[in-house]
Amino acid sequence: MTGLDSPAPIQRYGYEAFGLAFRSDFPIAGLRESQAAPQVIIQAGPVDVALGKSSEIASEAGFGYYKLSVPDVARYAAIDGRQIIVQVEPGARLNQVRQLMFGSVFSALLHQRGRLVLHGGGVAGENGAVIIAGHSGRGKSTVLAALVRRNRMLMCDDVATVEVDDEHGPLLHAGPSQIMLAADSVTRFELAPSADLEQIFDKYAYRPRVAASPQRVKHIVILEYGRELTASSRLLSPAEAFVVIRTFTRNRGIVERLQLRERNVRLAAAVANTVPVTVIQRPPEVDSVAAVVDIVDAIVRASTA
Questions:
Q1: pTM for the model
Q2: I want to staple 120 with a disulfide (CB 3.0 to 4.6 A). Which of 77, 133, 207, 214 is the partner?
Q3: Alpha helices for 24-105 (secondary structure H)
Q4: Considering the domain boundaries, does residue 72 fall inside one?
């Protein structure tokens, strides 16, 4: 067979995130390049998802697998914590395909691998990391960006994956180098369009540098709306901490469908018994970002000194 007869080699890409080495059939912006032996394979291929209406987002899950279908973007399958299959829809934008994979698909894969996955982000201090968790719309990403602009190092945004290590305690692994910000936050921080700012759906990916990984989890902060006119904070008991850690487990419904509830309960209890958890309540109709950032920054400084 001559060189002209030989098929062109398939280019594959190596990355690292969440403490795992990936090999991908396509480039993934936001992940750090790596030549390590892959623990997870991301490949293009067909994904069969039982759909109701083709115009609706659909998912299914069971022991060892999670599938997601997003019309006009892609279909995904996370299998046994070792493989992600992506079927890209015609005309889809690769950055949208990537962003949806960073969310529920990576979360499912990390649950499959025995991680505690929280709906939140994290920053690194001098000697450890602080996780900032909460429901959507509570300002987690805005607070993260504000902390980064105060020279804190980003660990992750939206998906905080914790490995419970018997020797070193709970460890937070760095995720993609991005913070997803709404347009008002882009304006707040005066972020000009650049290579570090990319629009994806209705948000913008801000790409600061990511801290070295892993980092010992020194504190967890929960952002909630309160009734007072000023921001306030309260340290929770371990029993209360367990409840909120379970509450803010990312894609908790997927955990149940993956039949991983008992393991998730054990992981949440282990973290609640070793890591302080503070709830910060912020007024819902007042711009309290600066006050909340001051509280969180003080926690980072005290916890990671």
A1: 0.93
A2: 133
A3: 94-100
A4: yes
Residue 72's Cβ-side half-sphere holds a number of Cα atoms within 13 Å equal to: 3
Q: Residue 103 — φ and ψ, nearest 5°?
A: -90, -105
The pLDDT-based confidence of 167 (bands split at 50, 70, 90) is confident
Q: Which residue has the tokens 């991005």?
A: 178
Residue that terminates a domain, selected from 86, 112, 138: 112
Length of the chain: 305
Rounded CA-CA distance 305/302 in Å is 6
Residues 144 and 64 in one domain: no
CA distance 24 to 11: 9
CA dihedral 282, 288, 291, 294 (to 10 degrees): 90
Chain segment 6-16, per-residue pLDDT in tens: 444 567 999 99
Domain that holds residue 297: 116-303
Structure tokens at 109: 């894969």
| Number of domains, the chain | 2
Q: H or E segment at 85?
A: strand 83-88
